[in-house]
Amino acid sequence: MSLINRIPQELCNLINEMNPEHRVNFHKVSEELEIHVVKKRINAIKYEWECHPDRISITALLALKMPDYEYVLSILSKCKCCVRHQTKRPITINNPGESIINIPGAFKYYQKHECECPCRQTSRNIYRMCHNGYIPYDDEE
C-alpha cells in the first residue's frame, strides 16, 4: 500500500483543489515542517554525541553527520522559537549573525532560559566548524 493511499480522501480533494490560498498556507506548513525535520536530525546527532564513547567534539560529529550544513543553517535561521535564540545566531556561513532582531544583550532578559530549542547552539556550532572554532561574540555571554 502506498503512502498516498493512507491520506484521507477529503485531504486529497483539498490538496488537488486549485485554490490560490493553498500555496500560501502550504508554504507556512512546509517551512515549519523543514524546521521540525532539521531539529529531529540535530537531536539524533546530539544523542549520538552524548552516547559516543570517545566524546569527539560536537563540531567534528556535525561535520561527519551533516554534509548539508549550509542548508541546515539556512533552515535554522528561520526558527522563531524565542527572542533570545534569534539574537547572535549565525544566519549563513559568512554571516555570524549579529542578530535577526538586533537586541544587544537580549539574553539578560531571559534568565530562566526555558527554551530548549537547538537552533542557536547548532547554528553557532556549524559556524565554528567552518571558521576553525571562532565565533565573534563567544566571550560576550
Please, could you describe this protein's structure?
The protein is mostly helical. It has one domain (19-140). The chain is built from five helices and no strands. The chain is elongated and about 50 Å long.
In short:
This protein has five helices and no strands. It has helices spanning 9-16, 21-51, 58-65, 69-76, 119-130.
The major β-sheet equals: none
Let me know the average pLDDT. 76
Derived structural class: mainly alpha
Domains (count): 1
What is the 3D form? Answer: elongated
Please tally the β strands and state the result. 0
Binned, the helix content reads 40-55%
Please write the string of helix (H) and strand (E) elements.
Answer: HHHHH
The end-to-end distance, rounded to whole angstroms, is 53 Å
Low-confidence parts lasting 5 or more residues at pLDDT below 50? Answer: 99-103
Number of helices: 5
Residue fraction in strands = under 5%
- Rg (C-alpha, Å): 18 Å
Keywords:
5 helices, mainly alpha, 0% strand, 141 residues, 48% helix
Task: Please outline the helices and strands.
Blueprint (H helix, E strand, L loop, with lengths): L8 H8 L4 H31 L6 H8 L3 H8 L42 H12 L11
